[in-house]
Specification:
By secondary structure, the chain is α+β, with helices and mostly antiparallel strands. The protein has helices spanning about 40-65, 85-105, 130-140, 150-155, 200-205, and strands spanning about 25-35, 70-75, 80-85, 110-120, 125, 145-150, 165-170, 180-185. The longest helix has 27 residues, at about 40-65. The protein is globular.
Length: about 200
């Protein structure tokens, strides 16, 4: 078998080594969603009960992502990575997911959001913005939505949301502390309309 000079990968397509300058850079708002304590679900509710809850979670995430015209970059049993063109869409999607899952009372959902510029690769994004969003989500507790200051600054009307607390986090791999805000999702309702130019990130981002 002969070696090919082209890098073959579902994210990179036929991009050749040294040609990363061909990759576009896009503004994106990223949302990490995770079921807290997912490994304990089978102990608490049994295999069938846990599977039913995970299916419910995936359905809620899928519906909210579709409603806010996001892109599901990854959706596994107990977590998801979602991308949006507009920060408001990302936050509204988080509010919808958290609010819907909380009605059942058996799932604890934690979330982290960040907005910035990232390399646009086939099937997703790559870079600092993605890593930072993941790190913020890791610090969220069950029932929490943590949002970076960068995303809050990009909201057209941040006063529309109940932003309860501010903190500086020391995140793995980052030399300086990162400022985040906690969103009081119980005091926020997901909007029913999309009127701020939110589009399909797979096309316009």
């Amino acid at each position: 078998m002969s070696l090919r000079s082209a890098l073959v990968h579902p994210f990179h397509g036929d991009l050749r080594p040294g040609e990363t300058d061909r990759l576009p850079v896009a503004d994106v708002s990223l949302l990490f969603v995770d079921v807290a304590g997912s490994t304990d679900l089978t102990v608490r509710f049994g295999d069938r009960g846990a599977y039913s809850l995970i299916r419910h979670f995936c359905g809620v995430v899928h519906e909210a992502t579709r409603h806010w015209e996001g892109q599901a970059l990854e959706l596994r049993g107990d977590g998801a990575l979602l991308a949006f063109c507009a920060p408001r869409a990302a936050l509204e999607c988080a509010l919808q997911i958290q609010g819907t899952c909380s009605r059942d009372g058996r799932l604890g959902i934690r979330m982290g959001l960040h907005a910035g510029r990232a390399l646009r690769i086939r099937g997703g994004y790559f870079g600092h913005t993605l890593i930072l969003a993941a790190r913020i989500a890791e610090h969220a507790l069950a029932g929490e939505i943590l949002v970076s200051s960068q995303l809050v600054k990009r909201l057209n009307n941040p006063s529309n949301y109940r932003i309860d607390a501010q903190a500086s986090l020391s995140l793995k791999g980052f030399a300086t502390q990162i400022e985040v805000f906690r969103i009081n999702w119980r005091g926020n309702g997901a909007c029913a309309t999309r009127d701020d130019g939110i589009g399909d990130p797979s096309i316009s981002c």
